[in-house]
Design goal:
Number of domains: 2
Shape: globular
Radius of gyration: 22 Å
Number of helices: 7
Strand order of the largest sheet: 3-5-4
Helix content: 40-55%
Strand content: 5-15%
Structural class: mainly alpha
Number of strands: 9
Largest sheet: 3 strands, mixed
Length: about 250
């Protein structure tokens, strides 16, 4: 399993990060930086560059850029908090990030961060649109209003500030004095590096799990797999399961 371009999880697992002054900490931050930059920051950079020569009214990649940045906000805050799962915590992640991080906190109080979460983050990621009246723009300050009073968010400025905060976080991780920050970072990265190995082991031990549903009536007996009871379709001839899911216990 690669956790960043051309970087296998084994390299992370072999780092000596128990020693606060180990040189491996620099490599740990490099691995993390490459993971985030190549998968998220650079694609957004390319979208911004692709239409930077167009008049502002003709620029068209704002929704995709903001979708990437919203994914990163939740991810970066979960690294800071040492969370391996943010289920039912997404709003909390956004409020903490936007109200505490340099570059954003001057523009967002908790109420504004909440509005951003529901209107922009949830709107784009769930409905492919912004809920409410906010516009995505590419000029001006981070937040503001157009001449007719319509609120806007400058997606280019937003992305620039997000990158600056990411660089700051990487620099903080290089400082041996930031023990809590490093501890939380390791919790998240260890989870990322090991979670597939756990899945692989379970799949090898239970090969039938790779073929979970064959004719729609399959049933599995395994402590980490949940499969709802099947039901008949209206014509009584087709057996359809409600759903199945796999639970992982992370220690």
């Amino acid at each position: 399993m690669h956790i960043a371009p051309e970087i296998h999880r084994d390299e992370w697992l072999n780092l000596d990060l128990d020693d606060a002054v180990s040189l491996d900490w620099n490599r740990a931050v490099e691995i993390f930086a490459e993971r985030i930059k190549y998968r998220y920051l650079e694609p957004a950079d390319l979208l911004i560059k692709a239409d930077e020569n167009c008049p502002p009214i003709e620029r068209k990649f704002g929704f995709s850029i903001m979708a990437i940045d919203c994914l990163l906000i939740e991810a970066l805050q979960s690294f800071r908090d040492g969370l391996t799962n943010t289920k039912n915590k997404s709003l909390e992640m956004f409020k903490k990030y936007l109200t505490k991080r340099d570059g954003f906190r001057d523009y967002f109080d908790e109420a504004q961060a909440k509005n951003f979460f529901y209107d922009v983050r949830c709107g784009i990621l769930h409905q492919a649109e912004i809920m409410g009246h906010t516009l995505l723009w590419s000029v001006g300050s981070l937040k503001g209003e157009t001449a007719d009073g319509t609120p806007y968010i400058n997606r280019t400025k937003f992305h620039e500030i997000l990158k600056e905060d990411f660089d700051q976080y990487c620099n903080e991780l290089k400082n041996p004095a930031n023990l809590k920050l490093r501890k939380n970072f390791r919790i998240k990265m260890d989870f990322i590096a090991r979670k597939v190995s756990r899945t692989d082991k379970r799949s090898a031990a239970h090969p039938s799990t790779s073929n979970v549903i064959n004719d729609g009536c399959a049933a599995l007996i395994h402590p980490t797999i949940r499969l709802s009871h099947p039901k008949r379709s209206e014509n009584g001839t087709q057996c359809v399961p409600y759903f199945f899911y796999i639970e992982y216990q992370v220690k």
